[in-house]
Structures are given as structure tokens and as C-alpha cells.
Amino acid sequence: MMMKKLIYLCLPILFFSCRKEKTSWDTNWKFPILSDTLSLKNWVNDSILSVNGDGSYQLVINRDLLNLRIDSLIKLPDTTISQKVASSAPSLNLPAGTSFINQIEEHVFNVKDAQLKNVILSTGTANITIKSPIQGNTILTLILPSVTKNGVVFSKVVTAPAGTIANPSVITDQIDLSGYSIDLRGQYGNTFNTLQSQVLVQTDPAGSTVTITNSDSIAFFVKFSNLQPNYARGYFGQISYHDTTLVNLDILSKISAGTIDIQNSNFKLEVFNGLKVTARSKFSLIEGINASQNSVILTHPQLGIWSTLNQASGTWDNLQPSVLSWIFNDLNSNISAFIENLPNKIRLGYSLELNPLGNDSGGWNEYFSTSRVRLRLTANMPLAIGLNNLTYCDTLDLQVKQNSDKTHLKSGKLMISAINAYSFSAQLQVSVLNQNDEVIFTKVASNKIQGTNNLNNTNPVEKVKSDIEIDLSETETADLSQMKKVILKVIFDTPSGGQIASVYDNQFIFLQLFSNIELTNKY
Amino acid sequence: MTRILLFCFLLLGFVVQGQQVLPLQQDTSLLKHQIILSGDGFYLSNTLQNDFTKKLLLGGYITDDIKNNSMKSMVSRNRLGSNVSAEFDYQNFNVNLFGNKKWGMVIRAGYEMFNAVQFSREAFQLGFQGNTQLQYNRANFGNMHVNSIAYQKIGFGVIDKKSKSSVVLNFVNGSSFFKGQIDQGDFAQSPNYDTIGLKVKGQLNYNSNKKNFFNGQGFAFDADFRIKINWHKGKTAYIQVMAKNIGVVFFNNQTTQYNVDTSYRYTGFKFKQLLSGQPLVSKDFSLLDTLNVHQKSKAKPVWLPGYIQVGKIVDRNNPAHWQPFFGINVYTSIICLPQIYAGVHYQPAKWFAAGAQMSYGGFGLLRGGLYLDFRMKDFAIGIATNDIYGLCSKRGYGASAQFRLTWQIK
Fold first, then answer.
1. pLDDT tens sequence across A115-166
2. What digits encode the pLDDT tens for the residues A422-441?
3. Model confidence over A288-345: pLDDT tens digits?
4. Are A155 and A272 in contact (CB under 8 A)?
5. B67 touches chain A (CB under 8 A)
6. Do B128 and A21 touch (CB under 8 A)?
């Protein structure tokens, strides 16, 4: 009996085992995350930098601050032309195939002050509607003699079914006008903004005799819409354009604090007129705003004064814009202060007037698809810069999946090994943010990536080695599960509080980033 | 009796985690029916100590001390095996199977979960310590094997009414399997950890559908031949030749196979990659492609880990108080070595017998085992361990427990 009880008791134990907790153990891993050499050599080919004879860099900046397409100023408004035709006889019996109407009319585009003679359209549509009350089939032809494409005149032939005055037959169609050239000089070539239309009406050759009266009026409607020229000629009128625009300089948007010092500030602003139209321009405001919202307004004798822009020369395939240049240096402007403010936004206020003196070109303004009015900033100076607590700050989306019930990071450290041949030092700081953008914790590297104290560090290049660490405790590692973003902050300094140091093409910084982590493995 | 009960509990508690030695006994008695319920569980390693293996299998935190203790005894090829099995036998001696008066019928049902792994010392270091303590900054993990399978069987066979020799054909259902090997494997890192290299050539197969219970079907033979031989001093003895679970399971086409033949070198990312704004692992990125790993799904036949044993067994009807037994057994797995064993059986009374044995090989080294056998009328129960030291000490290299419950109807 005892044996049976024992068996009954033991059997469940046989078939059910229980694991009270998960198996876990810790492992240590050290591996490279990043290994790279940074230098400015790659930028030489991008025409930003050039190398001088002594190996120092020359900074060459060519940046368009403004690039206006003028086609928005030369607008062809949506226009509907109509033509009604009817027989002059009170009543006629017309046998099959009889042509009985052939009329030409002229229509005017309402383009305000402009006197356009010729346009070539890049886009546009013509919606055609024809209404016929004639009580028999008719063949209707619409011709726009001055509208051509590849030498072929625009024409549309339709067969209209029988209709009545009370209930005319209606025919509609839509034509794509892309690539069409429109001669707006009228039937005799001596006017402007004028479009011709010609209408032909014939009874159906395959039909029967049709009776018409002078009350049977056939109506043609053509609606031109969305007309966008890529070439226009004529007099464009006196057009004024004023605007204030904000130009973002993304490369400087990450600078959150600190100052720079530059030498030989020498900048040039150039205005390019790609229109074959005499114009004048005025820059009323050039304001630089940095990441801390500090602004510096650029001053210069030419700012706020109208300047004449000569018309461009050449034709569409060799258009040569006219150029107006202003030099900015420390003698005639506050350019150094403007640049050292490190603006990441530039507010530009400007005005532009076409044909300020009226139609002084004999109606020969020309616009090409490549015509632009541009404002370009250029700089050409030695790349020598002083940095004083210049703070680069960037926010990156970063998440680490941490689940303490599974294999997870227990603790760790980031280790950076740097060999720096530049004259700047860098202090790293990383802040970890949660989903509410609240800082969970901030880690500052154990020390700086050191730079050389030699302000002209070349031939031979002096290199400084630094090893720095950022430790993550177990508590901080556990908090990584809340991490949504990190703010990476790097503070740069040149020696002695921001002395100007030259940059040479044989300088570099070699960086290796390692992780040394303790992993809790769990299953 | 209380001590016996406690011992039983102790042993039976290990049945599902642990191994086997209960000697089979020859019984030529004429029976009508016999029902045998048996269970066997063990884990065993040649180098991993119990405090490590128990936590690995049963849960818990593996401390550095525990890892280091096992590391001290590690050799180039280390083995760990475990097996949990249970079997139900119904033997009917009343029927004359196939019209033969000597043959009875056997109906068998069983379950087995077999796991085995062979690994290098450096692979253990990488897996349980990481790469910072790697001696000489290299890890060779070639010639590594892992084999795991769980299956159930139900069989029908014939049994000799007198000798109890039997042959059973089993239908087998495979629930899951995981099998792989690394033929060549080498991990290397530079002393300052700035370069990591990996060379791997190997294959891994496993059934992907974990939700299904019926993932493959097959068959397996069990054969148990009892051969009577002349023993010294004019006595007779019985030699058993046993082969169990010799068969194959054809797993269905939801079997995933990975083939890897790669040589990969990693030195860290470049700034361009980190600052591109694109994720380092893009949607199009495939780690498997990068490592030259090819994946495919296919049906796969998988050999069962069969068990073969040849040895002298104990004669139940022998009036001698002391009987020797010995033999050799092996699992048909490349990871497992043959195991030799020998022991003595002591039977002071009809209702009680006990025995002790030594064994060497298998997944482990030298072990000592004990068993007890109780008989009450038609019932018999036996409990055993193959590893008495491992049962008691965390410094042991395994644990084992077996039980057998027999109900004879005469």
C-alpha cells in the first residue's frame, strides 16, 4: 500500500519540472564602433577649399543666397476667346459639301502693361467648345494661324451633328499647348498681345441638303489656361517686385554657442541679371541671425540704394548674365562682425524693377527659360580661424532596446582614441533625452581630445594622442530604455582662448571609438 | 523507510533533469501480462560542473566563480549531453502472435528529449565571458556540434514469451529538432580590439514551426535480444544486445537550413556611414548576406539518437546473492563517446535488491552509480542513479536518475 502511495506521489514530479528563474550570466565585450580619419582633403574637390603653395588652405565660398525665376513675373492670364459665325442670307438651301462660312477674327490677351510679341509655351491647355444649331451635319474647322508647333499651324476639324437653336449640338475638346509658339503681333505683324482665329463651315459632303437661316449662329469658344512661357519677347512692362526672404545656412545651424575669429575677411556679393531687360535692384536688408537669435545687420555703402542692372547678352544657348559686384571688407562694412556672429539664417530684403525707364528697348525684352536673377555670396580667404568655446550641438534620434527580462546591457563605457594634428581641442558631452525631451542624464568625457599648440602646424606635423572615456553606470544603462534622443555637444577651442590657427592640407584627426560593455545574457 | 522515501524523492526529482544505470534483469518466468513504466533522465559533461549546468538548465545566475570552476577543467573538446525519456510497455503473453505459441505482443509508447553539444574552450569563453578575456585573442570553434531533438513514439512488436527478447517497430512523431555543426570556425581580434575577424564554415538546421506538435513523422526499431550463455562453474548467464530508437524522422518543409561559409573582417564604421542620416542597418541590409549565410526551407530527414547496449545482465531467477554485470553502450550521436560500465548486484532477499556500478565515457568521464529494487507481490519498483557523486555535489559533472515500475500478472 505504501508503495502505491509513493508511486502516486512521485509520478507528477516525474512529468513536471519547474524553472524558478531565468538563466543569466554576464559577458564583457570590447569592439570597435568607428574608425576613421577626418581631414579637409575631400572638400578640395568640392571647390570649397583650395590649397596654397605652402599647403595652407584657401577658403572659397560660392553660395547663391537668392535665385529668382522671373517667369512668375511674366504672366499670361487665363483667357477665353470666342467667335460666332452665321450666314448673311435670310434662308439658304445648301447641298451636301457646300462651304458657306470663312471668317477671321483677332483677339487680345489682357497682359496689363506688357506688350508681348511672341511667346513659346512650356505648359498650357486650350479647352475648345463649339455649339452648332444647324439642322444637319456640318464640318467645322477652327484655325489659329499664329499658333504653331514645329511649323504646323494649330487647327481643329470636327463634324458637328444636327442641332436646333433651342438645343444646339455641343462639341468639346482639350489641346495640350506645350511647345506651341504664339505670334501675338496680329494679322499684319505690327501690333502685340493679339491672337488670330479663323473659322470654316461646310455642310457634310455625305449628307443631304441643309436649310440654314441667318439666325443659325455657330459659336466657337477657346479657353487658354495655365499658360507658362519658357520664352517671351516684347515689352514686359514696368514690373516691381519686393520681398523679404529667409535663407537657411544649415552648416551653421548646429552652432549653439561660442565665438570664432577670422582674418582677412573679404567677401563679395554679386547680382546676376539673366534677363534681356534693363532692371534695377535694391537690397534693403541683409541680416544674419545665429542659433542664439543674436542678429547682425550687414552694413555697406551700396546697401539700400538702387543699382542698375544691365540686360543680359546672347541668346538662349549662350546667355551671358550681366553682373553687379560689391566688395565687403573691414574697411567698408561690418563683414567680420557679421561672419563671426555665425549666422545660420540670413534675412534678405530686396526690390527689383524691370524696365525702370519704360519701354526703352523698342519692345525687345527677352526672357529665356534659363533667365534668373541671382544674388551670390563669394569669399576667398585663407582658412585660418580662432575658436573660443565654439559649441557644436546636434540632436539625434537614438533608441536602445533594453529589457531586463532578456539579454540586455548592464554597464559599459565608450572609449575614444584620437590622434589630432589640428590646433583645436574638443570636449565631448552627451545628454540622453526621454520621450518628453527631458534630460535623463548627461555624461561628460573624462578629458578633452587635445590639439596641438602650434598655430602653424605643418612640415613636420605635430600630432597629439588622447584617450578619453565616457562611463555608463548600471543605473544609467538601465535608464537607456527610456532614451529617445541624444544631444551631442562638442566644444572646440584653439590655443590660448581662441588664437587664430592656420589649417594645412597635411593635418588630420584620426578617431577610433570603442565600446566596452558588460552584457547580461538571459533566457 | 523514511530514509528510503527521502532518497526516492531525491532521485525522482532528478528524473526530468538528469540520467541512467538501472540494470535490466533477465526474468524467464512465464507471465500473462506485464506492464512496465520507466523513466530516465540525466545530464552529463566531461568538463562542465554541476553548479554551472544546473543553472544553465534550471535557471539562476551563473557567477564568474562558477564559470571559472568549469573553465579550469576544460579541454579542447568539451561535451554536454542530456536526455529525458519515459516509456510505457504493455506485454501480452496470452496471445500467440502470428500463430506462434512462443511469441507474445508488445505495445509501446514513449517520449524522448535528447540534447547534446560539443564545444571548444574558446567558444565557451566567447559565449560566457565575452571577448575581453580571450587568451591570445583567438577562438577556435571548429568541430563544434549541437544536436537536439524531441519526439514521441508508439510501437507494436513481438516478444519471446520465455527469453523476453523483443522487436518493436515504432511510428515516430518529431516535435522539434535543432542540429548544426561548425566544421571550421575561427574568431580573431587584434590586441587593441580595433579589428575583428571571423571565419566560419558550417550548417544549421531546425524546424521553424514551434507551434505545431506534429512537425515530422518517421519510424524507429527497438530490438532487445537476450542470449543465454555458459558462465563459469557450470552456471548460465544472459547477454543482452539492445538497440533502441534506430530510425529516422522526416521533418516537414518548414525546416530552416542555414549554410555559412564566410570570412569577415570588421574594423568599425566610417563617419560617412554614421552621419549619413541613414540607419546603419538599412531595410536592404542583410546581416546574413554580409556574412555569406544562405538560408533555405526544405524538408529534412533527421536520424534519431539511437541507443545501443551490449552487456551481461542480471538474472532475476539466479539464487546467488551476488551477481556481476557489465557492458558497453553508446548513443548514435557524433558527440557521444562509447561508455563502458561494470557493477555488482546484491540480492539479500526476494523483495529487495541493490547494486553499484562504475562507468566511464559517454558524455562524461568516470562515474559511480547505485540502484535499489523493491518487489511486493506483482509489483516491482526500481530507482537508480548513474552518478551518485554528481547527485550530491555541485562539483560533480552530471546528475542521473532512473526509475522503473513493473506490474506482472501471472
1. 999 999 999 999 989 898 988 888 989 898 999 999 999 998 989 898 888 8
2. 999 999 999 999 999 999 99
3. 998 888 999 999 999 999 999 999 998 878 889 999 999 998 899 998 889 888 888 9
4. no
5. yes
6. no
Q: Give me the residue from B1, B8, B17 closest to A10, CB to CB.
A: B8
B407 in a structural domain: no
Inter-chain residue contact A513 with B405, CB threshold 8 Å: no
List C-alpha distances in Å: A339 to A261, A274, A287, A405, A501: 9, 29, 11, 54, 17
The residue in chain B having the minimum alpha-carbon distance to the alpha carbon of residue A523 is B59
Weakest mean pLDDT among A126-130, B211-215, B342-346: B211-215
A184's grid cell? 501675338
The grid cell for A457 is: 602646424
Residue B410 located in a structural domain: no
| Residue A473, helix vs strand vs coil | coil
Whether the Cβ atoms of residue A378 and residue A270 lie closer than 8 Å to each other:
yes
Q: Which residue has the higher pLDDT, A401 or A232?
A: A232
Chain A nearest C-alpha distance from B281 (Å): 13
Does residue B62 fall inside a structural domain?
Answer: yes
User: What is the total count of domains within chain B?
Assistant: 1
Segment 267-326 of chain B within 8 Å of chain A by CB: 267-272, 274
Judging contacts by C-beta atoms under 8 Å, the chain B residues touching residue A24 are 60-62
- Which residue in this structure is represented by grid cell 573660443? A388
Which pLDDT score is estimated for B253? 78
**For all residues of chain A together, what is the average pLDDT?**
86
Where are the alpha helices (H) located in B152-258, listed in sequence order?
A: none
CA atoms within 13 A on the CB side of B358: 3
Residue B280 has pLDDT above 80, yes or no: no
Q: Any CB–CB contact under 8 A between B194 and chain A?
A: yes
User: Beta strand pairing status for A501-502 and A384-397?
Assistant: antiparallel
- Residue B239: the pLDDT is 92
Q: Which position has the higher pLDDT, B10 or B145?
A: B145
- How many Å separate Cα B184 from the centre of its chain? 25
| pLDDT score recorded for residue A459 | 87
Partner residue facing A23 (CB), from B56, B272, B403: B56
- Read off φ and ψ for residue B183, nearest 5 degrees: -75, -45
Q: Where are the beta strands (DSSP E) in A249-344?
A: 255-262, 266-273, 279-289, 295-297, 307-309, 322-329
A209 touches chain B (CB under 8 A): no
pTM over cut 0.90: no
- A409-421 burial: b if 16+ Cβ within 10 Å, else e: bbbbbbbbbbebb
Dist CA B322 CA B345 (whole Å): 6
Q: How many CB pairs under 8 A join A and B?
A: 108
Residue B165 is given by DSSP the state -
Q: What is the mean pLDDT of chain B?
A: 86
In a domain, B280, yes or no: yes
Q: Cα dist. A220→A84, B65, B214 in Å?
A: 6, 99, 79
- Confidence at residue B332, expressed as pLDDT on a 0 to 100 scale: 92
Q: Which residues are CB-neighbours of B240 under 8 A, at least 6 positions away? A: B24, B26, B224, B225, B226, B227, B309, B310, B311, B312, B313, B327
Please say whether the beta carbons of A184 and A121 come within 8 A: no
Domain extent for B6: 2-402
Judged by CB atoms closer than 8 Å, whether chains meet at A36 and B271 is answered as yes
Quick check: A62 pLDDT over 50? Answer: yes
Alpha-carbon gap, residue B243 to B230, rounded angstroms: 23
CA dihedral B189, B190, B194, B200 (to 10 degrees): -20
**CA gap B120, B186 in Å, rounded:** 11
What angle is formed at CA A440 by the lines to CA A438 and CA A441, rounded to 5 degrees? 130
Mutate to test the interface with A, among B17, B66, B71, B269 (most CBs of A within 10 A): B269
